[in-house]
Amino acid sequence: MAEPHTSVSEATPALDSLSQWQRVSPIALLYLALRLFKAIFGNVSYLAPVLIVFYQGIQRQPRAFLLGVLVLLLLLVVVALLRYWAFRFRIIDETVEIRSGVLRKAQLNLPFNRIQNVRLQQPLYYRPTGHLCVHLDTAGSKVQEAQLAALPEHLAQQLQHAIYAKRQALASAGQPLESIDDIATRTEPAVAATEPTETLLCRRDIGDLVLYGISNNRVILALGLLAPFYRPLVDMLNEKLPVLGLDISGWFNPAQQSWFGVGLAVLATAMFFMLLITLGSIALSVISYYQFRLYRTQDRYIRRSGLFTRHEISMTLSRLQWVKLQQDWLDKLLGRCNLHYEQMFSPLEAMQQNAGHSKIMVPALHPDAAAQLLYEAYPQQQLAKMALKGVNWRYLIPSALFVSLPLLVISLLLIRTSVWIGSFGMLLSAVVQILLWLRWRKFGYALDTEFLYIRQGVIGADYYCVPLHKLQQLTLSQHWFMRRAQLQHLRCVYAAGALNIPYMPQADAQKLADYALYQAQASGKGWM
To answer: Smallest Cα–Cα separation from 301: which of 103, 117, 151?
Structure first.
């Protein structure tokens, strides 16, 4: 899905073929059906009790269950067909017009200059026919997003280029991007001959993705959701493995094995499952970020990646709220870090089908390469040179009083009845307090003329480089315990989320707050 080398004057006649009301390609039926299926079964955590009932039902009534599955699939196909049939669109007068809805009809008009992002997606089954799914995002929310489920690739790319060229024309002419008056229309010829020039900033190869899969293991989170199925799985293994001559239960039986043998069996089993989990995480990393490429044009970042489904995500520079360098403990061992370009975010954005593919993150970077990308985004930043101040030691007192101390007292009471439980509780109390101590030691902040720098973490660290002029809201808070020590909490709210600095010296908090608010007001720079 390369950027088309066409100007607006060339793209507009090509889009004239879409000026009449029409449907998208019939292959969109498959996309709509799979999307409905994912919407129903995508959240396993909510469906776990239902799946357990279904699993028990399969054992009792396999034919009835098969009939239910067929009925459900038929229902999905019918709903997808109705939605496809009710969907109409056209592109006329630099506006995307969409009619949709089966029971409730709706019409959506999206002028080019109101569209913030155009995301292109190409599932595996679209490739033989050369179609793309086009996501038109007007404000980063689900309510204000539209989709053209299947456009020919050349038309999708030309539509994307025409929209971006119109926005660039308005920006160059100094017109508001939300304007749709005649002045905005007359600015088109001024940039009709301009073409976006892409500069390759970064690429990730298979070796980099393998390291990312190892250091950012997310498969283990899915194991908790599968907990209800562990017992049936164990019962099945107990039935099948003896047939193969494997007595797994005997490996862990102290009556048949020495304690050393049982320990080796536990260790070998744990390592085996960790290997499976790691291999699964590597596979997910390769599937998501295969052929990762990060480009930059004059006014936006573009990320392209994906093995089965190819995604093209773009983000205008004006929407960039801050840059985060993330380095977990495994990243630290491997000498890598991840760089996040955080853009405007709304709570509804997390509910979108492709929310995970709407962000720009560069995985498994060498620190020098990450520093270069950070410099490319913010040439004025001085993160590497800043001496970060820590937060006050009183940060540890609430956690010690309300977490570690009660856990220690309970453990001391339980140690009389069970030495093992009491000892474990005491150990857990010590571990919790050590982790909180490490988190306190990791907290840091600094300020220069244009940026706020924050460091957070426990063993690893996250570094935030935040432009002060993007600030939306600032809050200073102080309870009675902090008042006596002249400390304050600082909370900075941006369009990408909130950042907190706890237990700051009151003088530093007031100074930082005053200067940040001054920069947000006096800089004259927009936040989007």
So the answer is: 117
The C-alpha atoms of residue 25 and residue 148 are separated, in whole angstroms, by 10
- What is the Cα–Cα distance from 8 to 13, expressed in whole angstroms? 9
CA neighbor of 390 nearest in space, from 251, 504, 526: 504
Contact assessment for residue 126 and residue 150, using Cβ atoms and an 8 Å cutoff = yes
Distance CA 159, CA 4 (A): 10
Locate 74 and state its tokens.
């038929």
Count CB atoms within 10 A of the CB of residue 355.
13
Distance CA 525, CA 469 (A): 7
| Placement of tokens 């049982």 in the chain | 262
Q: For residue 436, how many C-alpha atoms fall within 13 Å in the half-sphere facing its CB?
A: 18
Q: Where is 65: in which H helix or E strand?
A: helix 62-86
Angle of helix 419-442 relative to helix 405-414, nearest 10 degrees? 170
Q: Are 414 and 474 in contact (CB under 8 A)?
A: no
SS3 458: coil
Size (the chain), residues? 528
Strand order in the sheet with 473-477: 473-477, 487-494, 497-505
Counting beta carbons within 10 angstroms of the beta carbon of residue 476, is it exposed (0 to 12), middle (13 to 18) or buried (19 or more)? middle
Please check whether residue 397 is in contact with residue 360, taking contact to mean a CB–CB distance below 8 angstroms: no
Contact 489, 481 (CB under 8 A): no
Task: Give residue-wise pLDDT tens across range 100-124.
Answer: 988 888 888 888 888 888 889 999 9
Q: Can you give the residue ranges of every domain in the chain?
A: 8-196, 393-441
**Cα–Cα distances in angstroms (integers) from residue 433 to residues 391, 397, 440, 457, 481, in the given order:** 17, 10, 10, 15, 20
211 pLDDT above the threshold of 90: yes
Q: 81-99: per-residue pLDDT in tens?
A: 999 999 999 998 888 999 9
Could you give the CA distance from residue 264 to residue 255 in angstroms, rounded to a whole number? 15
Backbone torsions φ then ψ of 229, nearest 5 degrees? -100, 0
With cut-offs at 50, 70 and 90, classify the pLDDT of residue 387: very high
| Encoded tokens for 452 | 């706020």
197 alpha-carbon distance from chain centroid: 27
- pLDDT tens digits, residue range 156-172? 988 988 888 887 777 66
